[in-house]
Amino acid sequence: xxxxxxxxxxxxxxxxxxxxxxxxxxxxxxxxxxxxxxxxxxxxxxxxxxxxxxxxxxxxxxxxxxxxxxxxxxxxxxxxxxxxxxxxxxxxxxxxxxxxxxxxxxxxxxxxxxxxxxxxxxxxxxxxxxxxxxxxxxxxxxxxxxxxxxxxxxxxxxxxxxxxxxxxxxxxxxxxxxxxxxxxxxxxxxxxxxxxxxxxxxxxxxxxxxxx
Amino acid sequence: xxxxxxxxxxxxxxxxxxxxxxxxxxxxxxxxxxxxxxxxxxxxxxxxxxxxxxxxxxxxxxxxxxxxxxxxxxxxxxxxxxxxxxxxxxxxxxxxxxxxxxxxxxxxxxxxxxxxxxxxxxxxxxxxxxxxxxxxxxxxxxxxxxxx
Lengths: 212, 148
Fold this sequence. Notes:
- The structure holds 2 protein chains of 2 kinds.
- Helix content of chain A is 38%, strand content 15%.
- Chain A is an alpha/beta fold.
- In chain A, helix 4 links the parallel strand 5 (100-105) and strand 6 (126-129).
- In chain A, helix 1 packs across helix 6.
- The mean pLDDT of chain A is 90.
- Chain B has 5 helices and no strands.
- Chain B has helices spanning 8-17, 47-64, 98-110, 121-134, 136-147.
- Residues 21-53 and 59-64 of chain B have low confidence and may be disordered.
- Classes of the chains: A alpha/beta, B mainly alpha.
- The A-B interface holds A 3-4, 40-42, 44, 59-62, 64-70, 72, 84, 86-87, 89-90, 93-94, 96-100, 124, 195-196 and B 1-2, 5-16, 18-24, 48, 51-52, 55.
């Protein structure tokens, strides 16, 4: 049975689409069959060419249902569903099909408050601090704000993903630039660990293509 | 990991049951509550279709328009030193012989003013043209001599 991961969150621009592509790309680098489904009607579907994973159009509910049914029958596959922002009801329904729901959020106070509301709404979801600062003092400030706003949710937060130059290439037709491969692989592994899985249980091909 | 997940069919049913699955601002009426339409009547598009059609129209409009006219560098000052050929100056590609190049370079050497930048071949050509415009008969004679 395929493992389904939903990237959700009420606030737009928090990195749902980019993170979902990054995870799919990172896992595909390890030889995992990865599928990316976009459900956001405001976004166009990126072509599968120049990618190691398939991009699918799930903007229509019936089509999405059909895709999920077909993919659920597949073993050793990872399905990333990009929820799209501003649709809390859709997020709730999508989380019912997911093995893991990830709520990316950034450092801003608005993001932290929306993430808190999302974590309350989706009790099985985990938060992913995204584009987290790496500079020492900025990191300290961000960590302090996070600890204040999400005090009771620390166990439901993943380790932060730093700002990665080149992530934007994931959303281009030409595909990801090679320099982001290690970051994507690391993120993919982190997500698998959260699911209690490993690449050894999912990889379907020789890991030679996983060499960054 | 969750033990019980929705199937795709259940997921589709629940998403369709939402008032606003596509994320638009309007609410859709349920299909069975819609009144039968007159023959030939055009149904209004769903919010998602409306978004797609407007996006398509934008893309189509942007692709059907011709290339944008180039505006940079023409008719406007770009800062720095003022253009010697004026703000509307345009380059002209003139093929010159080695001897002509040498003559222009010699003229440029004669025009050197201590403390000022070295005149370029362009400065010399501009000077010749501007001088010729002041004495058109002389310039015409020079050109005729060159032809003959």
